Each structure stands twice: as C-alpha cells, then as structure tokens.
Amino acid sequence: MEYQHLLIEQNGPVIRATMNRPDRLNALNRQLVEELRHFFTDLYWRDDVRVVVLTGAGRGFCAGLDLKDRSNENAETTTWQSLRFQRRIADIVVAMRRCPQPIVALVNGPASGGGFALALASDIRIVTPEVKMNAAFIRIGLSACDIGVSYFLPRLTNASVASQYMLTGRFIDAETALRLGLAAEIATRENLDAVGQSYVDDLLHATPLGLRLTKEALNHAIDAGGLEAVIAMEDRNQILSSRSKDFREGVAAFLEKRKPVYSDA
C-alpha cells in the first residue's frame, strides 16, 4: 500500500511513523485511517521491526476524526456503511495492541478523540508541555466510549478518573497526564526526539523475543482472570526466552559489561 498521509522511516529495527496532515492537525480522514490500519496490521509479521515510534507532523499529534471529511457522507449512506467505517477505525487500536512491537508515542500536541485513542493504545507516551488530550466524541453529540478509549483509560488510570474525563470531555494537560500515569515524561518540543530515543535504546537492550513476549503477556495479564493464569503465561515466556541464543548473549554481555548483539535466534 502506498501511503499519502503517513510518513514511514526505518532505521535498523526501529520504524518511525509520522501522521502527516499538519494543516489539519493530522486529523483522521478516510485515507489516513486506511494507512494506519494497514501499517499496524502489517507489523504483526514484521520480524525486522522491534520498536515503533508514532508521532504527528507539525504542532499536533492527532486532532481525531476529520469532521470535514465525515461531512461528505450523505443521506444515502446506510447504517451498515457507517458501522463498517467505524470498525475500520477501531481496527487500528486492536492492531496496535496486537502487534508485538512496543509503540512509543511522541505526543507533540493536541490529541483529541481518535488521537487520544491512538495515544492510549501506545505502550509508552511522552508528551510536550502544550499537550491537551480528551475524549472529544462526547462534545459533538456522540458517546465518549469510542475506539477503545473506554477500555484503555480505566485500565491505565482507574474507573473514577475515566468517568471524570469521559463523561465531561474535559482536557487532560501534560502535568495531569504525568500525574495520572498517562505520560512517562514531559519533554520540550526540542528535546522530544532525544527523550523518545532514550526509551527506544532501552527497549532495544532487551532480546527481540523477550521484548515481544513481554508486550504480549502484559496485555493478556491486564485481562487475565486471576493470578494463576498470569503465572502460567509468565512461566511459558521465561522458558521460551531462556532457550534462545540471545538469552546466552544477554547474560554474556551483562557479565562482560558491554552492549549485547542479538541475532533474534
């Protein structure tokens, strides 16, 4: 698929995906929806990619659904056509959670509605001081329960916080995001890439298999029925990881106080 609004740069095992509609604060039109959906779905089979960095071009991360684009719908649009498009948008966050690569979101500006959902579906979020995030859906006559927000927000914070921001549509600023645990750090625009790279470097210190299995098990553990189910996944992961050549390389590098060189074997 050729991308029009998604810039992809790969540097070794790291891919940087930049939503590139800066004149619209990277709002999600139909083309960008399809590109994000294709990109994250395809990552499931990309063994050459170990870490993903997601950000937006210009002064915004993602302003959510492009309402001007949505206004092109007419009275002849069927309920099924609308539901089908809705599910294609939702597929993005499902694919983000399912893909084995950790996703580092550099939230460099407004992240509303669908943009908020993309940030929440990422694994690590670094925000700039001017960031404002909100479940904007409820402010335009829709439910705030959209694109996975009602799944991610109460799990990342708690039910009370989720109710506070989803029922009102109020904005979460950078300091509040940090306090609530929605942001790992606050970084200036000038320093955002450097801070993001520091997390990428730490992620690459893990073995490729260990990193993939950790994301997978952590996501399953969030929804697990109890401790024993989580322990069973953890035991599986540790045995699988310990059987790899990369595990032996990781131990050797630690003992020799050097950077490990992994072969994904």
Automatic annotation (TrEMBL):
It comes from the Bacteria. Belongs to the enoyl-CoA hydratase/isomerase family. This is Enoyl-CoA hydratase/isomerase family protein. It comes from Camelimonas abortus. InterPro entries: ClpP/crotonase-like_dom_sf, Enoyl-CoA_hyd/isom_CS, Enoyl-CoA_hydra/iso, Enoyl-CoA_hydra_C. Pfam families: ECH_1. PROSITE patterns: ENOYL_COA_HYDRATASE.
